[in-house]
Amino acid sequence: MFKRVLIANRGEIAQRIIRACRELDIETVCVYSTADKDAPYLRDADEAICIGPGPSKDSYLNISRIISAAEVTNADAIHPGYGFLSERAEFSEICRDCKIEFIGPSPEAMGKLGDKVEAKRYAKAAGVPVFPGSEGAIEEIEEAVEVANEIGYPVIIKAAAGGGGRGMRICRNEATLRANVGKAQQEALAAFGNGAVFIEKFLEHARHVEVQTIGDKHGNAIHLWERDCSMQRRHQKVIEEAPGPNIERKKIEKICESAAKLVKSAQYSGAATVEFLMDDKQNFYMLEVNTRVQVEHPVTEMITGVDIVKMSIMVAAGEKIPYKQKEIKVHGHAIECRICAEDHTKDFRPSAGLIENYRAPGGLGVRMDSHVCAGYRVPPNYDSMIGKLIVWGEDREAAIKRASRALHEFEVGPIKTTIPLHAELMNNTDFKKGGVDIHYLERWLKG
C-alpha cells in the first residue's frame, strides 16, 4: 500500500480523498492555488504545498508543478480526482515515467476508452450497443453531410476528447450541420487541445443512464449497477439517483454486464463509468466512458456499501478487487443533489463570495460531501459546486421525502445557491413519477 498520496485537485473531492486515505493509514499531501490557500480541507492533510496562482492553467493544470510537488514531498502516488488532469493520458504517462503511481488507468487504457471515437470502436468490438454515426473523426464537411444523410436527422456533433457540452452541436438539417462542424472543431480544440469531432444520431427524449465499474491490475472487472443522471442543464448533471427508476431490471442487468465486459477487455484498472443514453423503448446506446471517479459516485456507495474511492486506491496499489460480481447487491434508493453557488432565478449566475451562515443537514440516511463552512470564501476561479447532498431511503419515495426534509434544513448565505431549486424539484410531479428526459429541466425552467 502507498505511504503518501498527493491529491492533485481541490474542493470536496480533495476532502473525500483525504478521508479515504486516512482510513487506509495513508498520509496525504494537498496541492493548492493561492485562491484556495484558506480552504478548510488543507488542515486535514498531512502536508499542503502551494503550486501557483488562482488560474487553473497556472496551478491545477500545471503538470510540472504537480510532479515537482510530489517529488519534494516524497509522495509515491498521485490521485487526480475528477476534472483538471484526471483524464489526461499524458499526465498518467508522465507519472509512470517519474516512478509515481497514477491512481487511475494506465495511459494505454485511458487512450482506449477516454477518447470517444476510440471508445466507440472498442465498445463495438466488445458487443456494447453504440449510436449509429461516423466510424471515426470527421475531417471534412462533406463527410459529415454524407454520414448525416445516411443515419438521418437530427444528428449531434461531439468532441472526441471531452464532454460537458463543449464542442457539441445539435443539427436538425444540412444547413445547420454545415454551419456548425467548423465551430465545433474550434471549440473542441480550445477546450481540450484536440479538435477532433464525430457525428452520431441524436435522441430527442433520451434518459441518461450510466454504469459504475471498477477494474484491477489482475484482469478482473465488476460493475456496481446503474445511476440515472437525466436531470441536467446544458449537459451538466443536477440530480443523480440510483437505481434508475422505471427501467426493466433484465435490461439493466444486460447493460451492466456489457459495461463490465468493456472495461475488462480494455485491461482497465481503476474506477470508470460507462455512460448510456436510453430511448423511450429502453434501448441503450453508449455515450462515452469516463476514465475517473465521477462526481456522483456517492449514490452508488450508498446503495452498494462499496467505498469507490478507497477501492480505486487499493487497486492502484496492486490489490485485487475483494468482491465477486454476485456479492454486489442493491439496497434501497439514493439521491444526490449538486449544490452550486449559483442563482438559478437569474440564469444560474455564479455567486462567489463569503459564506457567513452555513448549516448542514443531518439525520439518518443523510450524507453531506462538502469542503465549505461558515467563513469560507467561494473563489470565482473554479467550478461553482460547493457540495453534494446525498440521501438514502428504503425506496425511492422515502429517499425523495428525506431529500426534501434535508434541503429544508440546509442553510448557506448570504451567497445564492441552488438549494431552493433542488427543493422545488423534490416536489415536482414529473420527477416524482420517475423517468424525466435530459432536456426536461431546461423546458421546465422556461416555464
How does this structure look, described?
The model has no long low-confidence stretch (mean pLDDT 96). The chain folds into three domains: 100 residues, Rossmann fold (3-Layer(aba) Sandwich), CATH 3.40.50.20; 72 residues, Dna Ligase, domain 1, CATH 3.30.1490; 240 residues, 2-Layer Sandwich (D-amino Acid Aminotransferase, Chain A, domain 1). The strands form six sheets. The chain has an eight-stranded antiparallel beta sheet with strand order 13-12-9-10-11-14-21-19, sandwiched between helices. Strands 3-2-1-4-5 form a five-stranded parallel beta sheet, with helices on both faces. A three-stranded antiparallel beta sheet has the order 7-6-8, with helices on one face. By secondary structure, it is α+β, with helices and mostly antiparallel strands. The chain is globular. Helix 1 links the parallel strand 1 and strand 2. Helix 6 packs across helix 7. The N and C termini lie far apart (53 Å). The protein contains 14 helices and 22 strands.
Q: Could you give a short description of this structure?
A:
With 447 residues, this protein is α+β, with helices and mostly antiparallel strands. The protein has helices at 11-23, 63-72, 89-97, 107-114, 116-126, 141-151, 174-192, 249-265, 297-304, 308-316, 396-409, 419-426, 429-433, 440-446, and strands at 4-7, 27-33, 47-52, 77-79, 101-102, 155-159, 169-171, 197-201, 207-215, 221-233, 236-242, 270-278, 284-290, 333-340, 342-343, 349-350, 353-354, 357-359, 366-370, 377-378, 385-393, 411-413.
